[in-house]
Design brief:
about 675 residues, mainly alpha, about 0% strand, elongated
């Protein structure tokens, strides 16, 4: 027994001496153990590894492998595996630059399953420490748990789960986190947090609440987890507890990470309790302090203003939902119309109820909106619209509670207005069609054609105008019919006939001012514009230029400056298409000087011409001026793209990338993103 003790003491003494030598000779980076037997040297390397003296352990393992051996006592494969394992783990813990390659080689070539799995665990942790979570997954899976201690098993489960989580493999992460959150260890809190998140997102609120309750007071999570707890109370029906928690967190001296969302939660609870006075300031705080707000939350905020009779504020926020085409959008538009009525703005109310009447999502609001739109149209003198909505109401809701009022209104409208449809039907049954009949028929068919055009029935309208031209003798109605037949021909893309009918109108006998009194839009200048556009479509650019020029000269310079500038721009386009760039630039310059809303388009076209003429510098100056201008130019994105192309032509690839990159980010111009990405990719390639 005494002999054993002496051996043990001697062994410890030798080990201590060797450790001292290692520590005092790190600059030499080698172990001086000339009297140490080979197997003892390997054993000592293991001891150094256990003591976390990784550099010395790696050196000891290397020396063991490099020491000379006799042919009768070679290094066994198990000893090689052990030494390789010690070195691998040591290098990994040292964060050595060769650690990864050494570990990968060792894992691939060792046949010892225990060392393979332990080394895989070490490599996985190395990846984990360096945030290489996707790489770590493979080696955590290879390591398994058979050769890990209980503590290592817990750590490995969490770390693998965290890697899965960051790799969006939530199904794989969940069971591991469920285990870790019950096992304790250094990842106990984190395990409960991430498991709680997964359970929360799967609407498994009971388990989520259980995990969150364990860590809500922990410093690392006290700024986040209480918000989730409050939301869970809300989602599970305990709204008062949710409100209590939200208010407590809002009033806390240290702001929660979800401070804005807590205001929204409080607002929603108050809103559902119909306590609009209390809800409104929380909605306002959330609206003022968040970058994006859901349409549902914006509606609730607007509704609070509505219920509190703050009509102007309600109008502002309901208007923001005006483009929404769903049930919420229809309700917003209906309430918006009511707000306008409360403020006496009948014109805006009529527009709002007209929009609401065209939506199918809420039948009750649709039905009521039809009647209100008809009533307001009737009061404001929009008799045709009033008739339209009354007929639509009676057709769509034959058993409507508003039927009596609608029919009464319709009766009065038919008395006050010329109902061309009924007049047309009546005239169709007339057998004796004398000159008086033809005179009336010409007016009825013309008027009926105008109604059909407004309704979008262009083919029928065109046939009615044919009847008006061929039946009657009144030159005013005939000229007006030619004007609108030219317009309809253009809409139907029958450009040759549009030009023919336009010329018939221009060359019609009689005074054109009488035609304009019948139809204010039927003017020579408008006819020339139509013929100019038709010529552009036919690629007869010279003729188009002439028509636009005639339109300009038929306008009154003292009252129609905008129209004249517009025709100059159209004439410039026609000249541009003829490749007469010098003249086109001169015309575009006139538009630019006039500084009308079309000025930016003229600048853009001028820039394009400068580019075609080889003046990239001038082109770039114009386009640069259109980017970031105040107010923003509607051609800014086109200018940005064209400027990027110019930079590419000039081999200024970095400038091209910087110029085009915003085109890939904005949602409203997502159609430009693919083209921009292509050019950006080309620039990066260069």
């Amino acid at each position: 027994m005494t002999f054993y003790k002496d051996r043990k003491i001697a062994h410890s003494f030798v080990a201590a001496c060797i450790s001292f030598l290692l520590l005092t000779n790190r600059a030499n980076a080698q172990l001086h153990t000339p009297h140490m037997a080979g197997n003892r040297q390997l054993k000592h390397a293991e001891e150094l590894l256990a003591q976390k003296q990784y550099r010395n352990a790696a050196l000891a393992a290397d020396m063991f492998m490099q020491q000379p051996r006799s042919a009768t006592t070679p290094i066994s494969q198990s000893e090689r595996d052990k030494a390789g394992y010690v070195k691998t783990i040591s290098l990994l813990n040292m964060q050595d630059t060769d650690a990864e390659s050494v570990a990968l080689y060792f894992i691939q070539h060792t046949a010892n399953p225990a060392y393979k799995q332990r080394a895989a665990y070490g490599l996985a942790q190395n990846y984990f420490r360096n945030n290489r979570y996707a790489d770590a997954i493979k080696y955590y899976e290879l390591a398994g748990v058979a050769n890990l201690s209980n503590e290592e098993v817990i750590n490995a489960k969490f770390e693998l789960a965290y890697c899965y989580f960051n790799n969006s493999q939530f199904t794989e992460a969940e069971p591991l986190l469920a285990s870790v959150r019950e096992l304790g260890g250094k990842y106990y809190d984190a395990g409960n947090y991430y498991y709680g998140l997964l359970a929360y997102n799967k609407n498994n609120y009971k388990d989520a609440l259980n995990s969150f309750n364990r860590i809500e007071d922990k410093k690392e999570y006290s700024n986040i987890v209480p918000y989730y707890i409050a939301e869970i109370h809300y989602f599970t029906g305990n709204r008062q507890k949710a409100l209590q928690d939200a208010l407590k967190l809002i009033n806390r001296s240290e702001k929660s990470f979800y401070h804005n969302e807590l205001h929204l939660l409080a607002a929603q609870v108050y809103f559902e309790d119909k306590n609009y006075t209390e809800a409104l300031p929380y909605f306002e705080y959330y609206y003022d302090n968040t970058e994006r707000i859901r349409k549902e939350d914006l509606y609730e905020m607007a509704y609070c203003y509505y219920q509190l009779q703050e009509w102007e504020d309600a109008i502002d926020y309901f208007q923001q939902l005006g483009e929404t085409r769903d049930s919420l959008g229809q309700s917003s538009t209906y309430l918006l119309g009511d707000c306008y009525l409360k403020t006496g703005d009948k014109k805006s109310a009529r527009n709002a109820f007209s929009i609401c009447a065209d939506m199918p999502f809420n039948p009750g609001q649709k039905e009521a909106s039809m009647l209100i739109a008809a009533r307001l149209s009737y009061e404001l003198g929009y008799n045709s619209d009033a008739i339209y909505y009354v007929n639509l109401l009676l057709a769509d809701f034959p058993n409507s509670k508003y039927t009596d009022e609608a029919k009464t209104m319709l009766s009065d409208l038919l008395i006050r207005t010329s109902n061309y449809a009924e007049a047309y039907d009546a005239l169709s049954d007339v057998q004796n069609r004398d000159n008086n009949y033809n005179r009336i028929y010409q007016k009825v068919t013309y008027g009926y054609a105008m109604q059909q055009m407004q309704a979008g029935n262009f083919t029928f309208a065109d046939s009615l105008l044919d009847m008006s031209v061929t039946t009657g003798t009144d030159p005013v109605y005939k000229a007006a019919s030619y004007f609108w037949k030219a317009d309809l021909a253009y809409r139907a893309m029958n450009y040759k006939m549009a030009i023919e009918y336009g010329n018939r109108f221009v060359n019609s006998p009689g005074r054109k001012e009488w035609v304009t009194m019948l139809s204010p839009d039927a003017t020579e200048r408008n006819a020339f514009i139509t013929m100019g556009h038709a010529s552009m479509e036919l690629s007869t650019f010279k003729e188009a230029q002439e028509y636009f020029s005639k339109a300009r000269y038929n306008a009154d310079a003292s009252t129609d400056s905008l129209f004249i500038t517009s025709t100059v721009l159209q004439e410039a386009d026609a000249v541009f298409m003829q490749k007469d760039y010098k003249k086109a630039v001169a015309l575009y310059d006139k538009v630019i000087v006039a500084n009308t809303p079309d000025a930016d388009y003229a600048r853009y076209q001028k820039a394009v011409i400068l580019g075609l003429s080889g003046d990239n510098k001038g082109k770039a100056e114009i386009l640069s001026g259109m980017i970031g201008s105040k107010p923003a130019s509607k051609y800014e994105n086109d200018a940005r793209y064209e400027l990027g192309l110019t930079y590419i032509e000039d081999n200024k690839y970095s400038a091209a990338v910087n110029t085009m990159m915003p085109l890939t980010e904005a949602y409203e111009i997502r159609n430009m993103a693919p083209r921009a990405w292509m050019k950006i990719g080309f620039a990066y390639q260069q």
